[in-house]
UniProtKB/TrEMBL annotation:
Its main location: membrane. One of its GO terms (cellular component) is plasma membrane. PANTHER family: DNA INTERNALIZATION/COMPETENCE PROTEIN COMEC/REC2 (PTHR30619), RECOMBINATION PROTEIN 2 (PTHR30619:SF1). It comes from Pseudomonas xantholysinigenes. This is DNA internalization-related competence protein ComEC/Rec2. SMART domains: Lactamase_B. The chain crosses the membrane at residues 230-249, 256-274, 303-321, 327-347, 359-378, 390-408, 415-433, 445-462. The keyword Transmembrane applies. Keywords: Cell membrane, Membrane, Transmembrane, Transmembrane helix.
Length: 737
């Protein structure tokens, strides 16, 4: 039985690694083969095939429910009902709309919408909205998050921006939304949003700084309702009934064990309902249900079987859950604890078990964090030693009791005030630890090194006395395995996907240069949220030069965040205003790094900021790249007149491919092999212009576009081709524009 369950679960998990879904005909053939295998000795293979078929069918339904390509970028009037808890941001409100209807087209069942400066929304309200719709997509950079996978796992068929709207019907009484508003209105020492996250599982109101502190200290699971919270509440309810029965205070006509199990399960389900039943909550409730059922029959249940049943339950309900990093972390953490605390000879004192649990999880999740490209918190074991009991024994009981007693004047609000005070103190301690020892973002390991780390972690977690534990600790040194180095005379170029902006990383063997820093507008700073994390994932420890082409926010906006987050030896800019201390671009300056030549140029007489862009030419082994910033027609003519050798192999499209740049004489003189365009999907400027694209193609220039291909990679000097991150095939990625 367990073998079949495990094979079925592996089939469901296999969906995560498919480059493409099988066509319907092949899926039917696989299903028939799986059913045939069930009647033979190959029945485990049949279980695996059936799991895969179910997962593929479910994923195909989600893909078929995406917005039709013909509707992308169009504005439609539609009607629908607000679902979930709308999130208020600095720019407006973000919410989901279910079962939208339009007279002009069939729409996906679920939309994720943003309404800039929008009104207050309530769950259950019906609205008529004018929405500019887009297919699910997001920025895609090396080793970074994949928003397209996240949206598919949530079965979001389209995203969009609301242009106008009118409320058609008020919301029916919605206790969850009303409770959130009540919690946000209480005085909780400025930690009202954290209380909402803890009680309702809605972390949308938490500040970005708070998320960064939680991530840096490995304590995110404490503010996102997890199995720990569910188990604690169920255990308290079970213990309360058992304690009353032992003291003789429980009614004798009611058998205490069934009531204890039922009330524990009811408490878990009630809290899960309150929290919206995320994957960790589903896993915890399913495991708890299995354990309580076995407890009623007085049978011993291995924790491994309960975990396997929970895994099957979650994946049967939603096979796409395997696309979520939280799914893997949630189940892996429990699996590590089961491995290390089950079938041990002798016992551990409570304090020993508690302290060992922290380092066990830290070591056990290490390979998974590396595989997912997530930061590794060096303070997590110590931070959790303090934070877990503090949240479990102080904050959570106060928060839940205070919420339940809000109807009692002063009492509920007083408890929530104490809970907020306790939360604030905890956040201050965690922030201190995060400043002292920030999270580590390692470079991706080669496969052989990752396998050694995974094996080493497994051996270290074996019981004491096993002779292979020490060699396992040695294998963990593969974390510092040498990474692939850029060869002398070559330069690795990454044109990052930063939407409507520009950020280009150039790395020689021992140096790193960043050309432009990505856009920033208001609270949205892609230098901080995209460029800086990507540089860290690529192993950039410092920048030898940050070169800002000109002062526009889509090129210079992220410079401040990068200077705060990384050591920068030197800053140069076409316009130094707002970037001090910085040197002005010195036209004609040349230097060489590791056999690669660099040269700057600027048209100082340019009438506009765009035309005064600082231009960088890079030559590696005879192969040439021109980073042109936002220069337009006038600067292009000046560059042609000033340059002796006009040959260019690769070109960063001037001004994102606008109609005022990439002129016919410029392209004809350069005739590059390829052009790389950095721009946002469906941007309001119409970049790149259709005439510019046609002009490039007429001259045989291959066009690469970050909005279509994600971040672009080029190794200048080996005379290869440009590769887009989206070219790494995944079944959920759409390559159409």
């Amino acid at each position: 039985m367990r073998t079949g369950m495990l094979a079925f679960a592996l089939g469901l998990l296999s969906l995560r690694f498919l480059p493409a879904l099988p066509p319907d005909g092949w899926l039917l053939a696989l299903l028939l083969c799986g059913l045939a295998c069930l009647r033979s000795r190959g029945w485990p293979l049949g279980c695996w095939v059936l799991g895969l078929c179910w997962a593929c069918w479910s994923a195909q339904q989600a893909l078929d429910d995406r917005l039709a390509p013909a509707l992308e970028g169009r504005t439609l009037w539609l009607e629908g009902r607000v679902v979930g808890l709308p999130t208020r941001t600095e720019q407006g409100v973000r919410f989901e709309l279910a079962q939208p209807l339009s007279r002009r087209a069939a729409l996906p069942k679920r939309l994720q919408l943003s309404w800039f400066a929008g009104p207050e929304l309530r769950a259950g309200e019906r609205w008529r909205l004018a929405v500019n719709l887009r297919r699910p997509a997001g920025l895609l950079n090396p080793h970074g998050p994949d928003r397209e996978a996240l949206l598919l796992a949530q079965r979001i068929g389209a995203t969009g921006t609301v242009k106008a709207g009118e409320r058609l019907g008020a919301a029916p009484p919605g206790w969850r939304d009303a409770l959130r508003q009540r919690l946000l209105a209480v005085d909780a020492q400025g930690r009202e949003a954290a209380l909402v996250a803890l009680v309702l599982g809605d972390g949308g109101g938490l500040a970005r700084q708070d998320w960064q502190v939680l991530q840096a200290t490995g304590t995110v699971h404490l503010l996102v309702i997890s199995g720990q919270h569910i188990g604690l509440l169920a255990g308290l309810m079970y213990g309360l009934v058992a304690g009353l029965a032992r003291l003789g205070a429980w009614p004798s006509r009611l058998p205490w064990l069934p009531w204890a199990c039922a009330l524990a399960m009811a408490a878990a389900l009630g809290y899960g309902w309150l929290a919206g039943f995320g994957v960790p909550v589903q896993r915890a409730c399913l495991m708890l249900a299995v354990v309580l059922l076995w407890r009623l029959r007085f049978r011993h249940l291995g924790a491994g079987l309960a975990l396997l049943l929970a895994l099957l339950g979650v994946l049967l309900i939603e096979p796409l859950a395997s696309l979520l990093p939280g799914f893997w972390l949630s189940f892996a953490a429990v699996a590590v604890l089961v491995l290390c605390f089950s079938a041990r000879l002798g016992g551990w004192r409570p304090w020993q078990a508690w302290t060992r649990a922290q380092w066990v999880i830290a070591v056990g999740l290490l390979p998974l964090l590396l595989a997912l490209g997530l930061p590794i918190s060096l303070t997590a074991p110590l931070a959790n030693l303090l934070a877990v009991p503090w949240i479990s024994l102080a904050v959570l009981p106060l928060a839940l009791l205070g919420t339940a007693m809000l109807a009692v004047p002063w009492l509920g609000e007083g408890m929530l005030w104490l809970a907020g005070l306790a939360l604030d103190g905890l956040f201050q301690c965690l922030a201190w630890g995060a400043r002292r020892l920030p999270a580590w973002v390692p470079e991706p390991l080669p496969l052989w090194a990752w396998l050694l780390v995974a094996l080493g972690a497994l051996l270290v977690l074996l019981p004491r006395g096993v002779p292979l534990r020490m060699p396992g600790a040695v294998l963990l040194l593969a974390l510092w395995a040498p990474r692939e180095q850029v060869p002398h005379g070559q330069v690795q170029v990454w044109l990052l996907d930063v939407g409507q902006g520009l950020a280009v990383l150039l790395r020689t063997r021992r140096h790193a240069l960043l050309y432009d820093a990505g856009p920033a507008l208001g609270a949205s700073d892609l230098g901080d949220s995209v460029v800086l994390p990507t540089l860290r994932r690529l192993g950039v420890k410092q920048l030898d030069l940050m070169l800002i082409s000109h002062g526009h926010a889509d090129h210079a906006g992220g410079a401040g965040a990068l200077r705060r987050g990384l050591p920068v030896k030197r800053v140069m800019a076409g316009e130094v205003a707002g970037l001090a201390p910085a040197q002005r671009c010195a036209s004609g300056e040349r230097w060489q790094w590791d056999g690669v030549d660099f040269e700057l140029w600027q048209w100082a007489q340019g009438a506009s900021s765009n035309d005064r862009s600082c231009v960088l030419r890079v030559v590696a082994n005879g192969e040439r790249l021109l980073l042109a910033g936002d220069m337009e027609a006038g600067a292009e003519r000046a560059w042609l007149a000033a340059s002796e050798d006009l040959r260019i192999d690769w070109l960063q499209a001037p001004h994102h491919g606008s109609r005022t740049s990439s002129t016919e004489p410029f392209i004809k003189a350069l005739v590059p092999r390829g052009v790389m365009i950095s721009r946002g999907r469906h941007n309001g400027f119409g970049h790149p212009h259709a005439q510019v694209i046609e002009r490039y193609r007429r001259h045989g220039v291959v066009v690469h576009d970050t909005a279509v291909e994600g971040a672009l990679r080029l190794v200048l000097g080996n005379h290869g081709e440009v590769e887009g991150v989206r070219g790494q095939r995944r079944f959920w990625r759409s390559i159409e524009d």
